[in-house]
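User:
Care to share a sequence and structure tokens?

Assistant:
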Amino acid sequence: MADRLAQVSSHLSTTHSRGLLAGEVAIITGAGQGIGRSTALLFAKEGAKVVVSDIDGEKASAVVSEIKTAGGEAIAVPGDVGAADFPKKIVDATVAHFGKINHIVNNAGFTFDKMLHTTPDDAWDIIMNIHVRAPFRLVRQAAPYFRLKPEARENRSIINVSSTSGLHGNVGQANYAAAKAAIPGFTKTIAKEWGPFGVRANTVAFGLIFTRLTAEKSAGVSIKIDGKDVALGVPTPTTPEAASKSPYIPLRRGGTPEEAASAVLFLASPLAAYVTGHTLEVTGGAGI
């Protein structure tokens, strides 16, 4: 026990001046914008070498440019996380460039809202593929770089993104709520199976974070998945003004992508060295 405490203390002290994730390698999906982008920038600021992935290659490259301009290290690996070849593509590219993987942040996702009785099979299947099957396949592909012998172990973690919809359900989101509800169970299983290898696995469940997914749907922003255009946003978004008066958010405001990223950083960092199998709710108190 004393040796482990000394190890953690030493890691914190030696990385403090260089960043909480100094020298570590992180794959972040959906990192071209929103929470993913903020997470990539923050991880890089804290010393991580970041693999920026997004379905929009131009946006992924733009984030890499931001990181490099600030003095960090990053590469872009664009692609659809739901594609059959994606896990091998990104894991191989990461290891070829950086030689290892310390963290995976399964952040990529979107909503495809319909009322339960009008939800077609494809709207259900697409959401399940991106939010459940894709994280599973990526983590499985990366297994050889996490299930390591004691002498090869460093700080390593898996962080899977869920939502208050997954914790409490939400009108018009049967598909999304079901997919996000699966994440804590998947994460806890990783924590139990890979804990003996020193790997931590945690879920972060976001509430109202102001991104394109919580913006006005009439803005016309969409994403192309499996050849289909999926409209993003919500019909009646919660504005900052409305959030300030909403009794369901104790802090009376929505969160920023930067605040969301800070929660992800905590879970990845040595500050959470004894935290695994946990679901961290980043909601401003909504749902309590």
User: Anything to note?
Assistant: Residues 121-141 form the longest helix (21 residues).
